[in-house]
Amino acid sequence: MPDDKVALIAVFVGLYLFDCILFLSPCQALARLNLPWVGPRAPHAEKAAKRSGPKWRVAGLDFGLTFYPVRGHFPAFLNPFTPFTAVFKSAPLLPPQSTHAGVAALPLHRISYATLVLRTMTGYLTVHAFLMFVVLPYLLITGRTGQLLIGVLFAFLLAGAIIAQLYPVARALKLGRAQYWSLAAQSLICIPQSLNFPRKLLLARTAKEAAPALFERVEPDRRAAIRRDFVAVLQYATQGGTENEELQAARSLLEGLEAESDE
Questions:
Q1: What mean pLDDT is predicted for residues 197-201?
Q2: DSSP for the chain?
Q3: Domain extents for the chain?
Q4: Which one of 13, 107, 119, 196 is most buried, counting C-beta atoms within 10 A?
Q5: Per residue in 203-241, pLDDT tens?
């Protein structure tokens, strides 16, 4: 029945969109580096990323839906149309970062390396997205069962190739084997999630820098809109709570940002 096929396609797309949802701690942000193109993927890509350190700029910060906290977190969304664009989480500002001591924080040169590798995989991910969300639905609706089975098999093979090629990135991000294979298994069991696999490797860790340090790396002409969201999450995070050094620092930061907004 055509209605059943449309419903199946809607579920397929819905699983991918649901996988693009994540939750951020108050004052935590999704960030994206603005890196120059350094040529094709090469064995020296990580060294090139380190050399470009002084040029690192942050293209933007996203604090999620600042008007809609959910159990103390803010929902945020990965852009479903750009699975090849690397984003990463800033270090939590509140509660104290010491509570996250067991989680390896990433220096920016490792994040930039992952960003460069993902950029070189644009072709793979574009083909994979076109296959899953255009070719397979078309074959399903037109009832071409034989070609559909071949397409599904090819989608799994392409997902496996993407996962295998990103193993060096997982090592560079200091992900454990168990965590890498857990993400890989999720991507193969639920094939729509495989399109997000490259981004989820990077999102499994946080940066060493918190949002204030990353905000300083944003181009001045882009700061106004980001500052408004930053003020909103700081106002939420500094309401009540036990008085401590971290809370005092957050309130001082809030006062400084509000003063900048008034200028």
A1: 95
A2: -HHHHHHHHHHHHHHHHHHTEEEE-TT--EEEEE-----S--TTHHHHHHHTGGG-EEEEEE---TT--BTTBEEEE--TT-TTS--EEEEP-SS-GGGGTTSPEEPHHHHHHHHHHHHHTHHHHHHHHHIIIIIHHHHHHTT-HHHHHHHHHHHHHHHHHHHHHTHHHHHHTT--HHHHHHHHHHHHHSGGGGGGHHHHHHHTSEEEEEHHHHHTTB-GGGHHHHHHHHHHHHHHHTSS----HHHHHHHHHHHHHHHHHH-
A3: 2-262
A4: 196
A5: 999 999 999 989 989 988 888 889 888 888 888 887 865
